[in-house]
Amino acid sequence: MSYMLPHLHNGWQVDQAIQFEEDRALVIRFGHDWDPTCMKMDEVLYSIAEKVRCTLLYQC
């Protein structure tokens, strides 16, 4: 499911997401796409994405 959530590929992108999002809360999942725990978290985040529209979901 990692392909379903937007990726932040470097520190600059993380900084930009934090600095310029003023209206919504950010959730950034740090980890590896191949890690089983991260894969499960990606599934959970993707499943709630429509319900938490006040939040931006990213993975890094």
TrEMBL record:
It is found in: Nucleus. The keyword Cytoplasm does not apply. The gene is TXNL4A. InterPro entries: Dim1, Thioredoxin-like_sf. Belongs to the DIM1 family. Keywords: mRNA processing, mRNA splicing, Nucleus. It holds the Pfam family DIM1. PANTHER family: THIOREDOXIN-LIKE PROTEIN 4A (PTHR12052:SF5), THIOREDOXIN-LIKE PROTEN 4A, 4B (PTHR12052). GO terms for biological process: mRNA splicing, via spliceosome. GO terms for cellular component: spliceosomal complex; U4/U6 x U5 tri-snRNP complex; U5 snRNP. This is Thioredoxin-like 4A. It comes from the Eukaryota.
